[in-house]
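Forum > Structural Biology > Help requests

Title: Can anyone predict the 3D structure of ABC-2 type transport system ATP-binding protein?

Hi all, first post here. I have the sequence for ABC-2 type transport system ATP-binding protein but no way to get a structure on my laptop. I'd be grateful if someone could post the structure tokens.
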Amino acid sequence: MTAIVQIDDVKKVYDGGFEALKGVTLNIEEGEILALLGPNGAGKTTLISTICGITQATSGTIRVGGHDVVTQYRAARSLVGLVPQEVNLEPFEKVWNTVRLSRGLFGKAKDDALIEKILRQLSLWDKKDTPIRALSGGMKRRVLIAKALSHEPRVLFLDEPTAGVDVELRRDMWEIVAKLKADGVTIILTTHYIEEAEAIADRIGVINKGQLLLVEDKDALMTRMGQKQLRIELQERISEIPQSLGEFKLELAEDGDSLIYSYDTRAERTGIAKLMAAMSAAGLVLRDLRTSQSSLEDIFVGLVQETGDAA
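Reply #1:
Sure, ran it for you. Structure tokens for ABC-2 type transport system ATP-binding protein below:
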């Protein structure tokens, strides 16, 4: 694939010396969904604002579709659609006029057929003559997406698009994003909802304290960094782990009726067979076995904690 967004060693330092971005380098491939995860203040919104030309980098370069976002601003910005966190819409204007105006602001020729297609795609067609103030929060979010798509961008930035939206509407938004990708739109999503990234992203980026910690294929990341846990439920409770099982680095559950064994899914040998034999020799009788895989949330929290400890 071809990189449609190229970010090279971008830094952003505000007055007073606060470093919001610390040398971020990233290529975003055409047609992919990239989820950018990070806690509040990590630099997600600053990075998006810098790519979209809302704020200017202190140093480094950004290109969208080969156009420098500073020296070729108009060409770069015409390729970008932005759905901000804040719902800032004219409350008394109707949906149709709101979306059509956005297209005109980019100097695009009138195209009512396209506006109709976008509104239908976002399930807004039956609301086209409704004033914005009469819409629900979820519908207002859809209007923001419609506005961002009205000038036919090739790259769409969704900055916390489902913040404050209920679970059902959130899943609707995931379906919308999947349809946009099918239409060839490149999507960069920032989110606090880990399950959102896990459900729809092709690649995951983790940012914290202005530093991009990693960008990796979602499935590869979970395979590489994920661990499996084997929970061994015992027939009888124990107060401590027998010394003979020390090499297995087991954890004893609080209630004393289970042992927890963590192992690397990539290892040639898991050590489970050896553990079972050692448990039998120690006189422990198992009642049941259960396995669980580390989630993306576990991986994310671990990475952020590591960064915090290193600071």
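The chain has a mean pLDDT of 87. The longest strand covers residues 3-13.
Shout if anything looks off.
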